[in-house]
Amino acid sequence: MSRALILGGGAPLRRCLAETLAEAGYAVFATARRYRADTAALTHWVGDAANPAGLRGALAEIRPDAVLDFLPLRPERAEALLAPGRHLLACGPASAATLRATAPAGAPWTVLRLGLVFAETSLPFGAVAGRTVAWRAARGLPTPIPAGLLDRRAPLTWGWDAAALIARALLNPKVYGRTLPAATAERLTWRDVLAVYRRELGATAAECPPAAYLRALRPRGRLIGRHVDNRALLAATGLRPADLAPVRAALAFAARRCREELADAPVDWALNARLDALAGVRPRGLTAREWAAYRLAAHPRLVHALGRLAARLGWEAPR
């Protein structure tokens, strides 16, 4: 049985990958900085894969045949990951030139360019997670979006489609030494995404200055997509465009899951305070306890100062 090791990647994508690879006959491992319960499809190795020493320890213990790396691929990490007979799929920030210069003979590598990958309950709207969009929609609050972004392409890919493409690319000689997009070619704008959220969640949006949006939320991934030509990867993996889910249908399914699980989802009051400031609105329908949490979250410096004062006075928070 071949072994696959996942480094980084969000939990929803990791679950999609683990189940897809397990069905394909792989033993699947993933690194975690702290203990996580194993599942039928995924075994965790506790350690810091971003640290070269921790990475070498994971590789020596697991002995993977393939590595899916979603972390920034710096030269020292590339040296540890590249080895003859072990396929490296670089799915995070990576340079093909670095890999060509670093790879020893017989060390296969592939760079896959992923867009914004979403799965059940992890769908995005710009830099805001779907659960937050659903929570705000339930209270009649708009979700801010940078001015001009609604008519730009949304680089969204359904997590199970990304997992299927990656699983077919693993240990596949047709993709060795290539840089390929592993994303859907379906064209969708953020306005199209908003239309799905409005229908499924009752969500609305409020445009705000892009600079203020970037300062407040600091998005990690690209919010604007380019045209994606995924024909080369489809040809190499044997998949067809019809094998990939329509993105609108996948978004609608994920939005309904967000709505169903909204009652159990924790509320990020600090994030919502920043979103309200960007949208120019005030929260509605909060209980007295929620309002207190919101007001404290809106003033993090005050909370920090009170915490320092309490520490100096020897006060302890009530349990």
Protein model, in words:
This protein has 319 residues and is an alpha/beta fold. 42% of the residues lie in helices and 16% in strands. The chain has 13 helices and 13 strands. Helix 7 (190-201) crosses helix 10 (247-260). The longest helix is centred in the C-terminal third of the chain and has 14 residues, at 247-260. The N and C termini lie far apart (50 Å). The relative contact order is 0.12. The mean pLDDT is 88.
Number of domains: 2
- CATH evolutionary superfamily of the largest domain: UDP-galactose 4-epimerase, domain 1
The stretches of 5 or more residues where confidence is low (pLDDT under 50) are none
CA radius of gyration: 22 Å
Q: What brief labels describe this structure?
A:
2 domains, Rossmann fold, two-stranded parallel ribbon, 13 strands, alpha/beta, UDP-galactose 4-epimerase, domain 1, 319 residues, 7-stranded parallel sheet, single chain, 13 helices, 42% helix
Please give a quick description of this structure.
This protein is an alpha/beta fold. The protein has helices at 11-23, 52-62, 75-81, 96-102, 130-138, 159-169, 190-201, 210-217, 231-237, 247-260, 269-279, 288-297, 300-313; strands at residues 3-7, 27-32, 43-46, 66-69, 87-90, 109-113, 116-118, 124-125, 128-129, 143-146, 156-158, 178-181, 205-208.
List the topology elements.
Layout (H helix, E strand, L loop, with lengths): L2 E5 L3 H13 L3 E6 L10 E4 L5 H11 L3 E4 L5 H7 L5 E4 L5 H7 L6 E5 L2 E3 L5 E2 L2 E2 H9 L4 E4 L9 E3 H11 L8 E4 L8 H12 L3 E4 L1 H8 L13 H7 L9 H14 L8 H11 L8 H10 L2 H14 L6
Parallel strand pairs: 1-2, 1-4, 2-3, 4-5, 5-6, 6-12, 7-11, 10-13
Antiparallel strand pairs: 8-9
Helix pairs in contact: 1-6, 2-3, 5-10, 7-10, 8-11, 11-12
